[in-house]
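quick one, 145 residues, struct below
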Amino acid sequence: MKVRDLMTRDVYVARPNQTIRDVAGMMENIDAGVLPVGDDDRLLGMITDRDIAIRAVGRGKGPQTLVQDIMSPEVKYCYEDEDTEHVAHNMADQQIRRLPVVNRNKQLVGILSLGDLAIVDGAHPAGEALVGISEPGGRHSQTGP
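---
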């Protein structure tokens, strides 16, 4: 199965010049903990509720802090025409639960979550990804180096 068959197409995008208060409100409205950051249809980074908590609140920054000041500019992504099993393996290796999806022109077209894989593809690729994601350590872990 291809990523385009499972991804969520209706993606809310944070802008780099928005405040974290605005973005936190967007996250609340759509019940999500992560948003891609983009300008027009170009992916510039990602911002998570954890970024807001640690990089902003934890460092004494206020609600008017701009997204560009705390977002993660290094973005992992996948292509809409990639095989979902391959992408699930990559998500496990890189310990990522959600990936922005781009077309071959690198325009943002959706987002793929571990949940998307589990609902349609079943336990096999999603389970393998979850095992890898759940390994202790890694860049995004509180217990990592």
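Residues 139-145 have pLDDT under 50 and may be disordered.
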